[in-house]
Description:
The protein has helices spanning about 25-40, 100-115, 130-140, 155-165, 180, 190-204; strands at about 1-5, 10-15, 120-125, 150-155, 170-175, 185-190. It is an alpha/beta fold. It folds into two domains: about 1-25 and about 95-204, Ribosomal protein L4/L1 (Ribosomal Protein L4, Chain: A, 3-Layer(aba) Sandwich), CATH 3.40.1370.10; about 45-90, no CATH class. It has a six-stranded mixed sheet with strand order 2-1-3-6-4-5. Helix 4 (about 155-165) links the parallel strand 4 (about 150-155) and strand 5. Helix 3 packs across helix 4. The longest helix is centred in the middle third of the chain and has 17 residues, at about 100-115.
Amino acid sequence: MKIDKISAESVIKVDYPKTLEGKVCADLINQYNQYVNHKTTIKAGHTKNKAEVRGGGAKPWKQKGTGRARHGSSRSPIWRGGGITFGPRTNTKKKVLMNKKMRRSAFKAILSILAKNNQVKVSSFKKSDEPRAVRKQLLEQLKDFSSAKLVVLNRKEAALAKASNIQNAEVISLNRFGAKQMAGKGVVIFEEEALNELEKRFKS
């Protein structure tokens, strides 16, 4: 399988790393997407039920003789200040489990699909840590791509933050690269060093 290597002078075809090639299995990819969504979702909403709301241990009034409806607790969901019946609960969310071998296989499968569709590119940058220089090179190399772009650099976060202000493009470091970042992107462009580092990680 071949992918495009972009440089300031030309675009040439290079071999896609064999280590990153994966067998496509729709069920495995679907399971992996569910796993990633489960891990990256912020579980912020949590309401208290009748048993968890503070107070309400005593019966509000006696069972009979008052002429009012019977009640056992002032923390009932039908009372103001009582528990919530069907609110969000973080501890009841179903856990999604997936072992490392399956996750790696699914990740490689997703990347292989993009590579087969000519959506994976590798870019050659000049050896410069200057954020403005990196941004200038990115703008020059991304001008031919109209769809949403994901640029993966093997660089520090501080330099990325200054270099990543590019319209219609997301620039991230290799350590933050995953299935969620690839979703909805028309093309994924790797810095050559980043692709080599990713290959090393999957060899180990």
